[in-house]
User: Fold these one by one.
Assistant:
Number 1:
Amino acid sequence: MIFEMGILSARKVGVLLALFWMGALCYFWLPNHIPDFLDLRSKSSVRSRHDVLPRLDNSGPVANQIRMQQLNLSSGHNVTGVIHVCITSDGNTLGGMVALINSIVRNTKHHVKFHLVTDEDSVNHLGDWIKSSPLREIDYEVKGFPESWVSGKIRIRGGRLELGSPLNYARYYLPRLFPNLKEKIVFIDDDCIVQGDIMELYNTEIKGGDLAAFSEDCKGMNKRLSRLANVYAEFLDFKNKHVQERNISPTACSFNTGVFVTDLANWHKENITGQLEYWMELNTREEVYGNEQGGGGSQPPMMLVFYNRISPIDSMWHVRFLGWTSGTSYSKSFISHAKLLHWNGKFKPWGRVAQHSDVWDRYFLSDPSGKFKPIRRG
Ligand SMILES: *[C@@H]1O[C@H](CO)[C@@H](O)[C@H](O)[C@H]1NC(C)=O
Ligand SMILES: *[C@@H]1O[C@H](CO)[C@@H](O)[C@H](O)[C@H]1NC(C)=O
Ligand SMILES: *[C@@H]1O[C@H](CO)[C@@H](O)[C@H](O)[C@H]1NC(C)=O
């Protein structure tokens, strides 16, 4: 009798083990097939010049001509002049910003002007870092973000408190931070690396009536990722009457606010900053954002303001969710074809465990002050 029981439970254990392995296989196998779901049209144009920094010429007739052309840029036309890129980062993650800048300049021949924003205490740190590195030749400006602009307007209910960092909201204030900029701009989160020519992203078309280009989180995603937070209902409280008045479909696809292309003249004209502040402030008094499972922070007001007015970004130009798991969810070959990688989520490429952090390491430039150090084993 005892012997029989032993055999039975051994069988049960065997069945459980088999089920576990099947589950694990599905989990790891599926994501490697993401390329099948995505658009690989521009595969062959991926190039990287890891050893050449572009030479920038800021003076003379050519530069003047570029400046003239720049005055006539609008969202409908492709660039012939300067590409404007904005990156924001708080003092703790400046290493992310530096690696991202380096990845952009090493993969383009075009003139990029960087508009960098960090907390007021970190402006000098960032400046010293850039000046003591091969990036000293880039065209850039650094602004300290006045935290008073958002103080009293941020409220995080539970969840990830780091999402309440004031710098997360700097993206709401682009025209106020850069009042002289009236043209197109690309915004990129500091946990990204660019492997393609940034000009392609800058030339993303913003269709008539749309306010910006973003990547939506439903289309072209594989099953495992798409069952994660990806509809408006996960980010907003549809019981709130102000939310209801916006006539938003709760099942509308959400989008990632970490990478976008927009036109600052239009942003100003449409009072986007004012609208974002309105929702932000309202959320301190009433529940607007729901349970914030999906991330909360700076995302929900953007979803309210940009609803139904976004153009798409090429899927290879925003390969994301790298920070959602510590394990590898993309194959090496897929990653090598991606134009932009985004480690959104908990596992940052400068942390102890992150997938494909070797790609990020290629672009990181060490901090002369020694304050920022990626955590690496051994
Ligand atoms: C701006 O560019 C458009 C399209 O290239 C052209 O039609 C227009 O004349 C230009 N405007 C100015 C002021 O140069
Ligand atoms: C802009 O450039 C993209 C590729 O970078 C191209 O597909 C598109 O047709 C161009 N648009 C115009 C208006 O030239
Ligand atoms: C911008 O929008 C906010 C919120 O809706 C509003 O209070 C403010 O008056 C608007 N500003 C302008 C200049 O229209």
Note: Confidence is low (pLDDT under 50) at residues 30-75.
Number 2:
Amino acid sequence: MLKLLFLCLVLTLPSIFSDKIRFDNYTLYRVFPKNENQVQLLRGLQDSDPRFDFWTEPSALVNNVDVLSSPEHKSEFESLLKAYNVEFVISNPNIQEAIDREPVKTYTRRNLRSMTWNSYYDLDGINHWIDDLAISYPSIVTIIKGGTTYEGREIKGLKISHGEGRRIIFLEGGIHSREWISPATVNFITNELLTSNDEETIAAARDFDWYIFPVTNPDGYIWTHTVNRMWRKNRRPVGNHVGIDLNRNWNNNWLVVGASSNPALDTYAGLGPFSEPETRSLSTFIESIGDKIDMYLSFHSYSQLLMLPFGNTTEPLANYEDAMKIGRRAMGALSVRYGTRYETGNIAEAIYQASGGSVDWVKERLKVPLVYCYELRDNGTHGFILPEDQILPNNLEVMDSILELILQARRFGYMSSGNIVNSSVVLIFMALLAKLLQD
Ligand SMILES: *[C@@H]1O[C@H](CO)[C@@H](O)[C@H](O)[C@H]1NC(C)=O
Ligand SMILES: *[C@@H]1O[C@H](CO)[C@@H](O)[C@H](O)[C@H]1NC(C)=O
Ligand SMILES: *[C@@H]1O[C@H](CO)[C@@H](O)[C@H](O)[C@H]1NC(C)=O
Ligand SMILES: [Zn+2]
């Protein structure tokens, strides 16, 4: 009872005691480092000064870096850039205006048709929608629990399955809470798999078991809706600070590179590998089905990239060559609809070295054949505050790319083609043939 009371208190605290943080006159800068010195300057700032919010990573590989500054620190930031001759422009002089325009919806039970693709949904909205899907498609949709958060919430997901014995495609969304387009994309894919009339989509839904978690950082996601739109981490307090970057906390090359041991920072990796309830419980869940997963997709924003493991090195490890070819073709398919361009590369060669992320752990520990991380729209014009009129186009083009990923994966022999019965007949036939040839 006490525990329940405590939980209720914790869950209602934000609405009682904290007001929504406003970002009036917070300015988004686009900075253009031209040489290694200028990159180092920005890296140093990112690694030491929580006053500046780096929306993208400074690295020699990128042309520009997006940084958000409060009005109080703008002049200091600009002076520093000028002192080092770093070019910059202001992409948005007042980020609060963009936040004010951002539509957020909730979702009431038993109202299946009301999930739309011109708003972002809060956590209750998404969870209620999942409940409704399980009721509407009782023989296909099962609710699954990927784990538990620091604040005691469930990491809720769903499984789409048209029968026993299928291989798995796993979708992980919302591990960084401010990247709202990520859950929106994952929800759209879910909806397509259940309602589309397109033959290829129907086949994709039928040929695999889909394990889908739109919001893997629920505490953080709620925080972005109730208090701080720019929140990235989970909500566990560490000393005077709050939050661990859940995508730096996985047990692969933990804290080796591109992560911080300073709890004040956004890339704080935590007290140890899997120190966080979210990563610990979710990884346990993933591991329980690990040998059946053919493809694992993690969704982030923004930068328009498709990245593959690993983040600790640019070395082409595992099946890098195949994974690159498959990924590039999928990004070709993505660009057809609206001309949106995505780059493909391993994490370290696409952005910068960073370790402790989910995809590296899934690849290394579970040997999943195809593992990708999307950085969704846009390429920096709006960043995390992606306008609502881009939600649907983003979702449609990503869905195109996922069907192409499956198609190419089959061409490269990573996934069985057609339905399970056919492929097992082929397998038996080939085994017989091999035996005959041996004899
Ligand atoms: C934002 O800046 C404008 C122009 O300098 C100023 O008039 C306004 O008071 C500022 N708003 C806040 C909330 O500080
Ligand atoms: C990078 O990480 C992978 C996977 O854990 C490991 O096999 C590889 O040796 C690491 N490479 C370097 C250069 O640290
Ligand atoms: C950003 O993307 C848009 C649309 O895909 C494109 O028109 C624009 O040139 C891109 N800008 C940069 C800097 O890549
Ligand atoms: Zn992210």
Note: DSSP finds 14 helices and 16 strands in the chain.
Number 3:
Amino acid sequence: MREFTMRPEVLELDPYKPGLSIEQIKEKYGLTNIIKLASNENPLGASPIVQKTIERHASGVFRYPQNHSPRLTKAISRQIDVPEENIVVGNGSDEIIDMLIRVKCRPGQDNILCYNHSFSMYKLTARVCGVEYREVERNEGYQLPLDKLAEAADENTALVFITSPDNPTGQAASVEDISVLAGVLPENCLLVVDEAYIDFVWPPESYTPVQAFDKFSNLVVLRTFSKAYGLAGLRLGYGIMPASVAGYLKRARIPFTVNTLAEEAGIAALADEDFYNTTLEVVMRGREFLATELSRLGCEVLPSQANFLMFQPPMPAQRLFKELLKRGVIVRPLASFGLGKHIRVNMGTDKENEQFIKILSEVLAGE
Ligand SMILES: *Cc1c(COP(=O)(O)O)cnc(C)c1O
């Protein structure tokens, strides 16, 4: 085979290893029923109203969408009370992360800063772009080390990423702590708060800086339709950022990355308050239930503000993962986050949660 030269940053990357699909697991273990609690998806699926909207617009897909999704941008602007000029809609929030790094960071010169055991996309995208990725250690009990990020930022730090509520720990930073960090970062540095799970915090006003977005000059907030809105497969997210930064992202982007059906679905999802509120009820009830039951079964559970819990089981995490898989339950072992003793499980429906606890207690009893 012919060897082609590739960019050195790309040669170093490990290929992404996806888990088995639901179909593959059914076949391998001879199962008919699978409970997937591994990817923080919405336990209720996608809103029926949104599904109808997608069907209704199917005939329109021969047309190009409108670039930058102006109708969805307007709907988001109304919903969060932030001007349209501050909003960039993307193909999942992953696209916004990618655009921010490509547009803001100078390869070989700038760095981005994060804390350890965090969402892999920041590091992956930085590496692909030839931008140095730096990590600080978390504080005691996996607390978000905003103080250490402030200390570690230097004049070449272009972006500081925090995830709040955090994946995989479920911990959330307060608005005060975020404001303090934003206030002390170097002049040229943007603070990016990834709010993929912000819908599940309580009370929201203590955690999201978006309500006071006009008070910040260097803040970027990322949101997604993949979790609370149940649209992970459609790929839709957005960033809220200074208008000048939004302008550069829009100039640099590939056109039409958000497709027609995703834009229509996003508008319909924002309007379907009943589905959204029911989702929050199910998740919050499930969070209480699972936290209590996991502790009762001898797991060390971290308190969570998200739609998942991180816990350390009283047996090796990788073995527990396999035993659960054999019985049709998919959870997320956290070795890839550098947390080899821990597991992340998202809230399912009430029935799925009960089933998960029943199967888990059987596995643990067999130890
Ligand atoms: C799930 C998740 C996202 C969402 O990504 P999309 O590209 O919008 O699906 C973003 N950040 C974190 C930390 C996540 O866990």
Note: The mean pLDDT is 96.
Number 4:
Amino acid sequence: MHTDQTIFAAPAPAASTSNKLLKDIFYQETGPEYFQAVEKAREKVIDFLYNTRQPFSGIKPATIQDAVYSINLDTPLADYDELLTEVNEIYIKHATAFHLPQYIAHLNCPVVIPALAAEVIISAINSSQDTYDQSAGGTFIERRLIDWTAREIGYTHADGIFNSGGTQSNLMGLLLARDHFAINTLGHSIKKDGLPPQAHRFRIFASDKAHFSNLKNAALLGLGEQAIVKVPTDKRFRMDAQALKAAIDEQLNQGNIPVAIVATAGTTDFGNIDPLKSIAAIAADYRLWMHVDAAYGCGLLLSNKHRRLLDGIELADSITIDYHKSFFQPISSSALLVKNKSTLELVKHHADYLNPEEQDYDELPAQVNKSITQITRRFDALKLWCTLRIMGKHKLGIYTDMMIDTAAATAALLQQDPDFDLLSSSDLGILVFRFKPGSLKTDLSALNQAIKKSLFFEGAFIVAGTKVNGNFYLKFTILNPVTTVADIRTILEAIKSRGYSLIEG
Ligand SMILES: *Cc1c(COP(=O)(O)O)cnc(C)c1O
């Protein structure tokens, strides 16, 4: 086995594998094959980085579908050059370039380089985070990062687990809320016995701007979408605490059973933070589980300047963090944290072959005990570890501050310009607005929709859109510290000139 790095620094030697049949398996005989393949893949990435000038090629679905479906999967290619040429044609060339300032649409952050280096290690070594015998250091690296996140939150007896994304973390938060309520109030184990007869009356309160994963998750939990009570929001689209109290009282009057409140720290459409302290006080009054969906707003944990916007988050029973939204991590990387570590007992299941009941888990830990839907689980935590070890929290926090500053400057530009109508300021980096030229009588929703679509298929700019009270608006998600106010001006000019030309046309 060759472990000497210098062997690989020069152009990698020809395949050394004695057994050609096994040359594609990653094992001690195939170091050169592995090195060459990854080197060629990396060249393609560098090519993407240097030569991608706009965020999208503008390719139409039918064209790319044809290209993908015309390939015969049963006829393998000759080598990696052919392979990467094909991957480039059907994928990389048309991939959305999140790293460019002209991409300002959804919650896709640019990624940091230490996390990409970690990905190389994660995929090849391929640890699985379920048990100690599949991931020794990985078990404790994940735990340490959960503890680190807990400390940033202000938790003292917390625990948690890395998940695939915010949707899964929110699912886990609501599952814990549901099962905790059933055990403690009804003496009923949903894990063992399924839903109790009262379950169709369980109610979960979330603002009308909360993420739609809450609806999906209520459905998955057997409560139905009907269990989500949408609480009205204030002028800045944050949950109205008085309205929350009224909504809870109304449900109680109807004989329904309040179980949990979901507060959103950073809404997907406006980037604003629900009043966490007031909501926590109401949750305490009514003895309800408080879950904070901080999938987006968790980035504020990193910022010295803006951390106070999350004050009160430490009062939550559970919290969703998406490192792949706001910590510059590659997809996927998320966590669910609980204030009280013992609540994770609610999701523990044992299997004799993996995590037997009689095992002492203080002696031989098993993260699988805390995971709801993944047994085999990626070692995503290493990306955040490498990021913190090279960059430190402080630098990540500066990136977060830069985005918030850019968003504030953008809001000012939109407010000053009579051709634009801005709906709300943002605590983070999301701005919802529309092109609304002065006296013009036109269907503004159709006009703004047309602007968005035509910019997208030209590929030069990707902006998002959303509906508020039935009207279509454009949406910027500013999540890239590289983006400057000058970049934003260019995008706004493009929107305006496209708007005017659409009106004339
Ligand atoms: C993106 C988002 C989610 C869902 O997270 P995924 O990682 O996409 O599953 C949940 N809540 C909020 C507020 C989000 O912005």
Note: The chain has a mean pLDDT of 95.
